[in-house]
Write a structure and sequence with these properties.
Helix content is 80%, strand content 0%. The protein is mainly α and 434 residues long. It is globular, with a radius of gyration of 21 Å. InterPro entries: MFS, MFS_dom, MFS_trans_sf.
Length: 434
């Protein structure tokens, strides 16, 4: 089989990319599914027993949800540099074991202080996972295929939120009392264990580079390596070449703001949408069971999943692929809580989710077209690190504004403003290559 491939380099590269996609992407989607669920499942725990049992206000819940990103911020760049040095297989397996242990320990948190401390440590242990995967994709997929490949990888976000909403609420509702624990504690326990088990799968199945892929025909492997090397050489001639150059690049810093704005919308929805849906009872006079709330929570993310994949295939200009959905999402979200019908409100929230999720995979085509090597490791890590500060600010600001005003409206106006500003900065970047 190793010598059976034939054809031009372009044909060989396309064939190699297809094989690599079939082998690597399903595993990466599964890993990110577990990762993202462990990150946001506190959003389901909060309104379903955790806040009442631990005595958390909306503001304190926002701190517990968001402090994850402070630890995450501190180690993103160093972790990505370690992955670049030691290889994705070893480093990602290490990350998964440590975050799984901490995520499981959250089931036994006795008070708000311990919960906040565990969320902070969870951020430290997860640092480097997502930007490491984005960096890893640059080792395997040429730029022409990267946005689409990233979109398939990032389908784990809406899948984990939609399916995770149903699974999490089912565990909370039917797992209450299991092992003598409250339902929300059982959820943390059962959803933390898979990452530890999957670390072994990563260790044995993930291949660091195409040159090491014995499962690729030799000619395809060589053609893919040549194509990727040519791309790296071209990027190195125009973009920053060093770690320091990437960290102080104005373009990298501008892209960090773009990512901040888009991800602000993602985390505001992820952490507070379950609470907003639970509040429909008071706002609209409707009543939903815990599982029904989980199913309603899933609706925007199912639509967003479709939007993510379709948009990555249809829109050609990477700037348009980011700016348009960010603008649509930013304009849609503040409208949601001014509507007089809960189903119309869900439509507005769904438009926001579609905008966020369509913009995210397309966004990563922008920095990876500008960075390579160690500069890519540092730049991607910095963008993800600074962008994910929104993961702290979005739940904190949304919760604090809800406490101060008595509803979620002002917090969602902030979400809209951040997303619209991300669209504006993306369009401004079209005029510069520095």
């Amino acid at each position: 089989m190793a010598d059976s491939a034939a054809g031009t380099d372009e044909q060989l590269v396309r064939s190699a990319v297809r094989r690599a996609g079939r082998r690597l992407i399903p595993l990466l989607v599964l890993l990110y599914f577990v990762n993202y669920l462990d990150r946001v499942n506190i959003g389901f725990a909060g309104p379903n027993g955790m806040n009442a049992e631990l005595g958390l206000s909306a503001t304190l819940f926002g701190v517990a949800a968001g402090v994850f990103f402070i630890g995450y911020l501190l180690l993103e760049v160093p972790s990505n540099l370690m992955l670049h040095r030691f290889g994705a297989r070893r480093w990602i397996a290490r990350i998964m074991v440590t975050w799984g242990v901490v995520a499981t320990a959250m089931a036994f948190t006795p008070n708000p202080a311990v919960l906040i401390a565990l969320r902070f440590v969870l951020g430290i242990t997860e640092a480097g996972f997502f930007p490491g995967i984005i960096l890893y994709l640059t080792y395997w997929f040429p730029a022409a295929q990267r946005a689409r490949t990233t979109a398939w990888f990032m389908t784990a976000v809406p899948i984990s939120t939609a399916l995770g909403a149903v699974v999490s609420t089912l565990i909370i509702q039917h797992g209450d009392g299991l092992f003598g624990l409250s339902g929300w504690r059982v959820m943390f326990l059962l959803e933390g264990i898979p990452s530890v088990l999957l670390a072994a799968v990563v260790w044995f199945l993930l291949t660091d580079r195409p040159a090491e892929a014995k499962w690729l025909p030799r000619q395809e492997r060589d053609a893919l390596e040549r194509a990727l090397a040519a791309e790296r050489a071209a990027v190195a001639r125009t973009g920053p070449r060093s770690v320091l150059g990437a960290l102080k690049s104005p373009r990298v810093l501008a892209l960090s703001w773009v990512y901040f704005g888009v991800v602000y919308g993602l985390y505001a929805l992820g952490f507070f949408l379950p609470t907003i849906i639970k509040g429909f009872a008071a706002q609209y006079g409707t009543t939903f069971s815990t599982v029904e709330q989980g199913l309603i929570n899933a609706v925007p993310y199912v639509a967003g999943l479709v939007a993510m994949v379709v948009w990555a295939r249809r829109a050609a200009d990477p700037v348009v692929r980011v700016a348009v959905p960010a603008l649509v999402g930013g304009l849609a979200i503040p409208v949601a809580l001014y509507l007089t019908d809960p189903w119309l409100a869900i439509v507005a929230v769904t438009l926001c989710a579609c905008g966020v999720l369509a913009a995210l995979p397309s966004f990563w085509a922008l920095p990876t077209a500008h960075l390579t090597g160690a500069a890519a490791a540092a730049g991607i890590g910095l963008i993800n690190s600074l962008g994910n500060l929104s993961g702290f600010l979005a739940p904190y600001v949304t919760g604090a504004l809800a406490d101060a005003t008595g509803d979620n409206r002002l917090g969602l106006w902030v979400v809209g403003a951040c997303m619209v500003s991300a669209a504006v900065v993306t369009l401004a970047l079209r005029a510069t290559r520095s």
